[in-house]
Amino acid sequence: MNKPAHRDGTVGKALEVLDMVAGFGKPVRFTDLLEKSPYPKATLYRFLQTLTNQQMLNYEEDTGTYSLGIRLMRLAHEAWKNASLAPIARPHVETLAAQIGETVHLAQLDNGQVLFVDKLNASDRFQTLAQVGQVAPAYCTGVGKAMLAFVAPKRLQIALQQQSYLQYTDATHGSAESLMKELEIIRAQGIAFDREEHQRGVNSIAAPILSSNGRIVGAISIASATSRFDTDALMQFREPLLDAAKKIGDDATSWQFPS
Fold first, then answer.
1. Is 1.10.10.10 the CATH number for 9-68?
2. pLDDT digits over 70-101, tens only?
3. d(CA 202, CA 195)
């Protein structure tokens, strides 16, 4: 079992359980949580029950799975309004979506995971799993890999340890070693791809958002159905994507973001 990084009483332990659920990036069964949990079975169950009763988690009886709850989503929305990159980036997200006619995602890195802070669907042709306020894995998403490639080395090592490396599809990275090889390529090319690594039938091209001093503050991506654009075809969006990322980074330089 994993040892918790810190303890802050009952509240801290409950938040660790929330982080654990969020880290799976999809509805998760009790048995899967127990495998990663530092707590005994009865203790973990008690935390899950309390979090569910408080609407911080949702329990689906038909599937026996836990997912993030509606109360947590409301809190995330308030955090989005007050402390995220989204308000600054929104004009550039709108311009990019209108220019390329595809779905645009905006994300920040949160404890080694991806937090989606904005999303704009330019059409209703298809839907991605990502929703505003949702947490997703960094190791198998375009925005996640774009950010991981440009974080400071010490922070990267911590983030790599926070990944679950679950195999969502055959293309998903299964280890830190495999991921690191791709991060080197992303660092050199300045862009990242999600090659159906998190959701079958969906791929994306992503770019890091850097402040003027080189600090990573987020990432932006263009997502599409693989039936419409393969990875090579997504390259046509490279320049407008990089242009949007630079403009957001320039506007964000004077903003104070949570680390």
1. yes
2. 888 777 766 655 556 888 899 999 999 999 99
3. 8
Count of helix runs (H) and strand runs (E) in the chain: 10, 9
- Dist. CA 55–CA 77, nearest whole Å: 15
Does residue 89 contact residue 218 with C-beta atoms inside 8 Å?
A: yes
**Tokens coding 177:** 């070693």
Comparison of pLDDT for 129 and 232, the residue scoring more = 232
Distance CA 90, CA 105 (A): 11
CA atoms within 13 A on the CB side of 155: 14
The domain limits of the chain are 9-68, 82-252
Q: pTM for this one?
A: 0.67
* CATH code assigned to 82-252: 3.30.450.40
Is the Cα torsion angle 122, 124, 126, 130 positive or negative in sign?
Answer: positive
Identical topology for domains 9-68 and 82-252: no
- C-alpha span between 124 and 189 (Å, rounded): 31
Helix, coil or strand: residue 5: coil
- For 108, the enclosing helix (H) or strand (E) is strand 103-110
